[in-house]
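User: Hey, my collaborator sent me this sequence without any context and asked if I could get a structure. I don't really work with proteins. Can you help?
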Amino acid sequence: MTPRTRATFDHSLQAVQDDLLRLGSMLDAAVSRAIQALANSDSALARHVVVDDGNINALRFKIEEACLRLIATQQPAARDLRTIVAAFSIVSDMERMADHAAGIAKTVIRMGNEPLVIPLDEIPHMAEECRAMLHTALDAYIRHDVDLARTLPKRDDVVDALYERLFHTVVTTIAETPGASTRALYLLFAAHNLERIGDRAVNIAERVIFITSGEMKELNAGPDAPL
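Assistant: No problem. I've predicted the 3D structure and written it out in structure-token form, which is a compact way to encode the shape of the chain:
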């Protein structure tokens, strides 16, 4: 690239990354509000999360269009191209994460005013870990920080362990109190959405490694898998 072309490319790529971080902020808020709605049986707040999912979808498409435009007009190569391709993939994962947040909100709406049958000990903790993972993954992407990206699988193991603990609690509750089965399963559905958000944060970390090495590698093949 000529210096002028390079400057144009850098400006456009920065705009993509700024929008990507804005999408991350919207996603973080969606997760936070969905869990708040669950804790307070707040159907109105839950509906707000569902409606806002449309704004997240719109920003996702804007970012994808900008990525395609950069590839078509600037013809980037090597690491520049991988950075754009990674952004294209990351926003898709983030949009799906937002769908999971909306899934929690829809569960709240279905629950109505039914009392919680299981304490929310694990679910808020899972949400905190997932939000922290999202922040770390996006930071690693912006900085192209592979070492930071490699910290994500261990954090995902924490989310998985919390989900497994809640799963066993739900199974026990259903066995001991069959009449509470539906309410117990609602909480399991919410937790499953958080577990998937954690998995997709690891996907973002994998794209960071792709940027620097050109290699796609699964980071989290299991709790004991080497990085």
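In plain terms: The chain has seven helices and no strands. You can pass these tokens on to your collaborator as they are.
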